[in-house]
Design goal:
single chain, 389 residues, alpha+beta, Methyltransferase, Cobalt-precorrin-4 Transmethylase, Domain 2, 2 domains, seven-stranded antiparallel sheet, four-stranded mixed sheet, globular
Length: 389
């Protein structure tokens, strides 16, 4: 889940009106039946917002006093993420699927406010199958402009239709549908290790084809960390009927014991170490963003376990894994501020053997060193993230 951008919340407050995916509350909902019913109704409306994006219930802003930031520091009804999760847990939602909600706090104008984030997904429409307090069963609530569907009503037919289309991907482009279907990794018939196409069992027009006639041998900085360092690279295409939707490749590693999709690559423009003439000390790293096509292929090929190791577990993150762009950018920001914590001298001793590898007559120490530095930064970042939770 992406963290809330504080600047975005401040901009919304400065806009001085409610909107289609944000709402203001001067204080937290009361703990009585009315307060709990109002909170549940608001959460469902935000979960079904028509913008297909996260909804914000911003608490600690007084709409009636020119959107003054009053804060929630002394609010006795204040709740955190776990409180909201516990509140929703026993509610009878259709299909047993509940909205994902988190609470984030931030300091604005010397006052602490809370933002209840109702996270967007494709499980709409959310609705109850049993009455809960004042919230009616089988009523589909949504939010249009700055107004929620009244608690004793149901949304307009056109808006309900939009929410069902979102659930079934009928509002998505073919590429967006591919992204949705790739997440259903258990629904795919895998044939990555033979000449047949891999296809979705319910929608076989969505296929993944590997061109094994164009396979070539090569090398990547990950090679020395596998018992068999040879790597083989083969073109891969995502097909909708006979149309190519996306082109990438597949890597066979460790003597064809494991196959992975081509990863993404970026650079941390920092002078992390002294490099030979003609090279820089910046850090190149390889990663999978699980919200993008390579990351979804990675999840599919590993049946959801996100495993890139073979014949044993190593302590190097050969490929960094991020849930989304926000996580990736937090890692980059952390790395720029904390790269001095990495003990490169110790890394050179610890990974002396892989660092000594030569490929095609050329020493590969710099590229492999960049990989292990990125891995160490990733470990430090994960520790920092856990401390912030």
């Amino acid at each position: 889940m992406q963290k809330v951008n504080q600047d975005e919340i401040w901009d919304l407050i400065q806009f001085a009106q409610e909107g289609s995916y944000w709402d203001y509350k001067r204080e937290w909902y009361a703990s009585d039946s009315k307060g709990k019913g109002d909170m549940l109704h608001d959460i469902i409306c935000m979960a079904n917002n028509l913008e297909s994006r996260d909804g914000y219930i911003i608490i600690g802003v007084d709409e009636e006093q020119d959107f003054d930031v009053c804060g929630v520091d002394k609010d006795t009804n204040r709740r955190n993420t776990q409180n909201i999760v516990d509140f929703l847990r026993d509610k009878k939602f259709a299909g047993g699927i509940r909205p994902t909600v988190s609470v984030e706090s931030m300091l604005l104008e010397d006052c602490e406010i809370d933002v209840m984030v109702v996270h967007s997904d494709r499980n709409t429409p959310y609705y109850l199958t049993e009455r809960v307090l004042s919230v009616h069963p089988n009523n589909i609530y949504t939010r249009v402009q700055d107004s929620n569907t009244p608690i004793n009503s149901t949304a307009d037919f056109y808006h309900v239709e939009m929410l069902w289309k979102r659930r079934f991907g009928l509002d998505a482009s073919i590429k967006e549908k591919f992204l949705i279907l790739l997440d259903q990794y258990e629904e795919w018939e895998h044939h990555f290790d033979d000449m047949r196409a891999t296809y979705h069992s319910k929608f076989p027009e969505f296929r993944i084809e590997v061109d094994y006639e164009d396979r070539s041998e090569g090398w990547e900085p990950q090679s020395p960390f596998y018992l068999d360092p040879k790597m083989y690279f083969t073109p891969l295409r995502l097909m909708y009927f006979n149309t190519i939707i996306f082109e990438t490749g597949i890597i066979d590693v460790d003597g064809f014991r494991l196959y992975l999709p081509y990863s993404q690559e970026r650079v941390l423009d920092i002078n992390a170490f002294d490099a030979p003439s003609g090279m820089d000390g910046s850090v190149h790293y390889y990663y999978y963003n699980l919200s993008e096509m390579p990351g979804k292929l990675f999840k599919l090929m590993t049946s959801g376990n996100l495993n890139f190791s073979s014949r044993g577990i190593h302590d190097v993150w050969l490929y960094l894994v991020f849930e989304n762009d926000d996580e990736h950018e937090r890692f980059r920001d952390f790395s720029y501020s904390n790269y001095s914590q990495v003990d490169i001298t110790s890394l050179k001793v610890k990974y002396k053997r892989p660092l000594s590898q030569i490929y095609d007559g050329n020493p590969m120490e710099i590229r492999i060193l960049q990989l292990v530095i990125a891995s160490e930064l990733y470990k430090l970042w994960q520790e920092d993230e856990q401390e912030l939770e």
